[in-house]
């Protein structure tokens, strides 16, 4: 049975978001800031304006899928995750 690698709980959200976004856009200008509350985590993603459409997707489908994945990871930590995309 293959072993899975686990990230530290405090770094998992930012690293996962950065990994996903790096696969979508063609630049290294990705900045992620994190605000934590008792029951929530807010991730602020800053990307260049020219790359925003790739992360948001048609009718917001891509960003919704990213939020869904982050929400699943957050649920495992009993946290609600909010993602804000700024360009």
Question: How would you characterize the overall build of this protein?
Answer:
Belongs to the KhpA RNA-binding protein family. A probable RNA chaperone. Forms a complex with KhpB which binds to cellular RNA and controls its expression. Plays a role in peptidoglycan (PG) homeostasis and cell length regulation. One of its GO terms (biological process) is regulation of cell shape. GO terms for molecular function: RNA binding. It is found in: Cytoplasm. With 87 residues, the protein is an alpha+beta fold. It has a domain at 27-86: GMP Synthetase, Chain A, domain 3 (2-Layer Sandwich), CATH 3.30.300.20. The protein has three helices and three strands. The chain has helices spanning 9-24, 52-56, 61-76; strands at 31-36, 40-46, 80-86. It has a three-stranded mixed beta sheet. A hairpin with a 3-residue loop joins strand 1 (31-36) and strand 2 (40-46). Helix 1 runs antiparallel to helix 3. The radius of gyration is 13 Å and the shape is globular. The model has no long low-confidence stretch (mean pLDDT 90).
Summarize the structure.
Forms a complex with KhpB. It is found in: Cytoplasm. The protein contains three helices and three strands; from the N terminus they run H-E-E-H-H-E.
CATH uppermost class of the domain at 27-86: Alpha Beta
CATH superfamily caption of the domain at 27-86: K homology (KH) domain
Straight-line N-to-C gap: 42 Å
> Which blocks of ≥5 consecutive residues have pLDDT under 50?
none
Question: What structural class is derived from the secondary structure elements?
Answer: alpha+beta
The CATH topology of the domain at 27-86 is: GMP Synthetase, Chain A, domain 3
Helical stretch tally = 3
The counted number of beta strands is: 3
CATH architecture identity of the domain at 27-86? 2-Layer Sandwich
What gyration radius follows from the Cα positions, in whole Å?
13 Å
Question: H/E series, N to C?
Answer: HEEHHE
Mean pLDDT rating:
90
């Amino acid at each position: 049975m293959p072993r899975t690698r686990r990230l530290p709980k405090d770094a998992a959200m930012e690293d996962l978001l950065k990994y996903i976004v790096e696969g979508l856009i063609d630049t290294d200008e990705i900045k992620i800031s994190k605000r934590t509350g008792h029951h929530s985590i807010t991730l602020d993603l800053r990307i260049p304006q020219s790359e925003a459409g790739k992360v948001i997707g048609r009718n917001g489908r891509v960003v919704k899928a990213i939020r869904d994945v982050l929400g699943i990871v957050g649920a495992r930590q009993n946290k609600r995750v909010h993602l804000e995309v700024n360009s």
